[in-house]
UniProtKB/TrEMBL annotation:
It comes from the Archaea. One of its GO terms (molecular function) is carboxy-lyase activity. Residues 124-311 form the 3-octaprenyl-4-hydroxybenzoate carboxy-lyase-like Rift-related domain. The lineage of its organism: Archaea, Thermoproteota, Thermoprotei, Sulfolobales, Sulfolobaceae. Pfam families: UbiD (PF01977), UbiD_C (PF20696), UbiD_N (PF20695). Belongs to the UbiD family. One of its GO terms (cellular component) is cytoplasm. This is 3-octaprenyl-4-hydroxybenzoate carboxy-lyase. Signal peptide: none annotated. Residues 317-440 form the 3-octaprenyl-4-hydroxybenzoate carboxy-lyase-like C-terminal domain. Residues 10-86 form the 3-octaprenyl-4-hydroxybenzoate carboxy-lyase-like N-terminal domain.
Amino acid sequence: MTFQDLRDYINFMSKSGKIIKIDDEVDVNLEIAEISRRATYLHLPPVLFTKVRGYKEWRVISNVFYSIQSVKEILGTQNLEDIGKRFLSSFSETPLTFMDKVKSLPSLLKLGKISPKMGKLKPKESNIKLTDIPAIKTWPKDISPYFTFSLVVTRDPETGVNNLGVYRIQILNEKEAIVHWQAFKRGSLASAKYKEKGITKMPIAIVNGVDPVIAFTAASPVPPGIDKYLFSGILREEGVEVTELDNGILVPSNAESILEGYVDLEDQRLEGPFGDHFGYYTPPAYFPVFKLEKAYIRESPIFHVTSVGKPPLEDAWIGKAVERIFLPFIKLIIPDIVDMNLPEYGLFTQIGFFSMRKNYPGQAKRLMMSVWGSGQLSFLKFIVIVDSDVNIHDLNQVLYAIATTVDPVRDVIIIPGTMNDSLDQASLNPPLGSKIGIDATRKFKEELGRDWPEEVSVPDEIQKKAIEIIKRITQSLPPS
């Protein structure tokens, strides 16, 4: 179903008995984060804090993406891959390359119901300051309170494409905050284009409290060049209602709060430490400063936060949904792939399992290179390639494939001096690190030097008889 805004979602969940209201007074300093984490680990429904110490007018919601099933419910499907297939079916049947299709998408869908629609802004202009908003402190040694699930809205100065990204934001004072966008994120890439044009004040908006489908889109690695409002419209099957701010940025009209201003690209300050999803504190590094010009707030506003830490927390279930939704995209770009598994405990940017239909020698290593050359999959530190009959969502099957097909000298490759996730504390000089690829496929004669041995098996009729006898035996046994 389509939610008009965050309140519509909360009302829907309340009617279903799936909102946990906490009326105890809680503190933004560690308490909200710890309660939220424990709720997520238990797969509890969203938590709505109704009494936040020092922030009388505000309510705070967390744990919106509390399980993979919750994401499916928000997106209105039980098969997430269907979303990616639906997106790709929006293209014409003309056999174009993937990038040709991406470039043609806006014109193909321009008049459709999924395009953004101009609307009236619901939040009202306010003299609120950054320090008046219930930003949370997640871990004891975090440098300050942070916005942890606010959306940073930017516009590409060359293409006009809108981007919504979830970047952590460190509150400095009443009017300033540091935006932690890494070098490969869309916001940072757009900032480089502004600098090339000699523009050092990059217009942005920091938005909080939106329809969870829009929030999900902001956290997703939508292919470059595709407008995230348009992609939200595809997920919602209805266009997002937007309003243009004075600085030219389009924002969701129904957001709970909107902070209009600019990022000063010449004002870089130390951000962090911050306890992130790796489960460690990120050491301080320089990032640009946001400077507030105007604020817009709804009456009795709701502030959306998330608590990060060791998996599986909300980012794990967002990541798992992203894996399924974007599998059709990946298979279009890399046809060798049958399936992929980015395990939640592998943090999505660190470990990836891929299955393939192997047709020729050396194909698995070729596939590794293709994966490392594809979008955010390029940050994977470990890649394991297995045959198509291996269930990559069963770790035991993957381990068995590694144990029975891999000779380390022949089948393991290590690549030094490549880009990994900049939050990876294991790298000597993040984001520069190294990668490892493991070819756990059965080997062709050209790879092994001899024919691959025959696997053990039993004729079908013997299997059938054995199954029938075992079934009869188990049914006759007393209950344990």
